Task: inverse folding
């Protein structure tokens, strides 16, 4: 059993911390160092996906870490062509497209989220496998702000921030088996312009969605296939650096 943590990153201007290239460089250094000491509970690589702006300094910076050992595996670097602004969610799907045969479980995470406790990925896998109706385990709880989840009597997420149930930021875990079912049932889901560009230079006709729509769709689509979403964090297991809050 092998897992991967897909960490989406972007070195252009951003709304919150890290707001610029230098802050992002500094943050990624800290993330890699942190993962040398953090035990996620099982064999788990750290796959950093760069939404590539063509900056050679950034490319060289990331490439120096490719293959570096961390506590549960190694760092892998994937430079994703920048065609549009589907950012984290496009990076998650791009990583899955490239490494679908290499891993059994996928933990999707943004670069400004820090895991605060050992065994986090192992624990999330146990939640996923303990209930066949669960298709995605959200990393965050959000019981205290506008993104708060609401739950049914069995603990499944029924709404996120008053909208369709989804994991904020797309952060959370699923299995290769479940994700493959999503991709085969809804081909448009995996066929981002970046992936289509690998087989055909013609990406005309693809309709870009707004960031908010893509964020909702990334995990809400699991519910369309009949799966449910649960949450892992009790509000104290992750730190979201952009606001200093725990997830």
Result:
């Amino acid at each position: 059993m092998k897992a991967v943590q897909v960490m989406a990153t972007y070195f252009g201007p951003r709304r919150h911390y890290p707001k610029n290239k230098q802050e992002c460089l500094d943050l990624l250094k800290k993330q890699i160092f942190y993962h040398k000491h953090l035990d996620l509970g099982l064999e788990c690589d750290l796959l950093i996906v760069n939404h590539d702006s063509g900056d050679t300094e950034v490319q060289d910076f990331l490439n120096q870490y490719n293959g570096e050992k961390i506590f549960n595996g190694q760092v892998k670097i994937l430079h994703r062509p920048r065609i549009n602004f589907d950012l984290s969610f496009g990076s998650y799907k791009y990583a899955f497209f490239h490494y679908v045969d290499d891993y059994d479980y996928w933990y999707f995470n943004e670069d400004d989220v820090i895991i605060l406790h050992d065994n986090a990925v192992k624990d999330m896998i146990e939640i996923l496998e303990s209930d066949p109706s669960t298709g995605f385990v959200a990393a965050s709880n959000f019981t205290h702000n506008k993104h708060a989840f609401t739950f049914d009597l069995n603990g499944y997420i029924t709404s996120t921030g008053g909208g369709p149930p989804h994991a904020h930021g797309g952060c959370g875990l699923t299995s290769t088996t479940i994700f493959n079912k999503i991709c085969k049932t809804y081909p448009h889901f995996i066929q981002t312009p970046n992936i289509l560009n690998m087989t055909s230079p013609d990406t005309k006709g693809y309709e870009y969605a707004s960031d908010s729509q893509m964020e909702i769709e990334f995990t809400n689509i699991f519910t369309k296939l009949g799966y449910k979403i649960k949450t892992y964090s009790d509000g104290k297991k992750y730190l979201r650096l952009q606001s200093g809050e725990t997830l």
About this structure: The radius of gyration is 17 Å. DSSP finds eight helices and 13 strands in the chain. The longest helix spans residues 21-34.
